[in-house]
Amino acid sequence: MARVPLHDRPILITGASSGIGEATARLCAKAGMPVLLAARRTDRLAEVAGSIIKAGGRAEAVGCDVSDEAQCRRAVERCVEVFGSIYAVFANAGFGVEAPVLESDGAIFDDMMKVNYHGSMHVVRYALEPMRAARSGHVLFCSSCLSKIGLPFYSAYCISKAAQDYAARALRHELRAEGIRVSSVHPTSTRTEFFDLARTRSRDIKFDLSGRTAFMHPPEKVGRAVVRCLRRPRGEVWTSPLLRFILGVAVICPETTDRVLRRIARKRGHPV
User: Fold this and answer.
1) How many angstroms separate the CA atoms of 140 and 15, rounded?
2) Which one of 87, 117, 154, 157 is the catalytic residue?
3) pLDDT at res. 195
4) N or C, which end of the chain is more exposed by having fewer CB within 10 Å?
């Protein structure tokens, strides 16, 4: 596939006030893309937008709670109003909570699906309207490596990320004939506020994912992978080919996977 020129092609990024969203916004702006930053923390968004502009990029900040469909629509409309169009959207906003399966079937699960899955679909649905009219665009979902496996005490998070992954795969085929690319991004453990917020929201940490591992990396690594995908679109984006292979094996060898998960759980202090 021919390399896609990114200069002057606007992108809307949700969850852009920190972590993967912020890093991706800075790198997209550096590549010449006007960036619409969307998140709930408007003070932090303004700081990020200001620093992008100071560095010579183009950026606009819009307060947006992705669980509110009307706010997602306004964010897309603002992108078109300020930059003249919208070429890409990176549905990145999301959060995680540790909770056993039987405690994840009420408010915890509903809130996570409302933000991680439905929030992504809200912004993607409205962004697709101008993309389909232009018969050009690129939709990216920030899923997770955990979309491929059910991790103990993180079932709600895994389910929400698998939902994004499956939606991306279906849309990839449904929209291809209209000139719109769809990608799912699968980061591994990333050094962001995610784990701090997960600990705050979780009642009792039993399976801490925040420890340093060979697969822990900075958010800029994800941002660079997203920019590469925007330039040369592909269906799935992985920041660790090794982990992608391991998880592929895990899917086809479920009994071995269960033994590994029990060992990991024991090492992290949970009797299984």
Assistant:
1) 13
2) 157
3) 44
4) N
Q: Is 202 in contact with 99 (CB distance < 8 Å)?
A: yes
Q: What is the dihedral of CA 172, 175, 179, 183, to 10 degrees?
A: -20
Rounded to whole angstroms, the Cα distance separating 216 from 92 reads 18
Residue with tokens 């920190």: 18
Q: What is the largest CA-CA distance in the chain?
A: 56
Q: CA-CA distance, 264 to 56, in Å (whole number)?
A: 46
Name the residue type at position 92. Answer: N
Catalytic-residue membership of 157: yes
Could you give the domains of the chain?
11-240 (3.40.50.720)
Total residue length of the chain? 272
Closest CA to 184 of 143, 213, 154: 143
Tokens of residue 131, six digits: 């993309």
Q: Which two tokens stand for residue 177?
A: 């004939």
* Nearest one of 28, 7, 21 to 228, comparing CA atoms: 28
CB 6 within 8 A of CB 231: yes
Beta carbons of 160 and 121 less than 8 angstroms apart: no
Mean pLDDT by 10 residues, the chain (272 residues): 90 96 97 97 95 97 96 98 98 87 76 95 98 97 92 88 97 97 90 46 50 71 97 95 90 88 72 58
Q: What pTM, to 2 d.p., does this model score?
A: 0.88
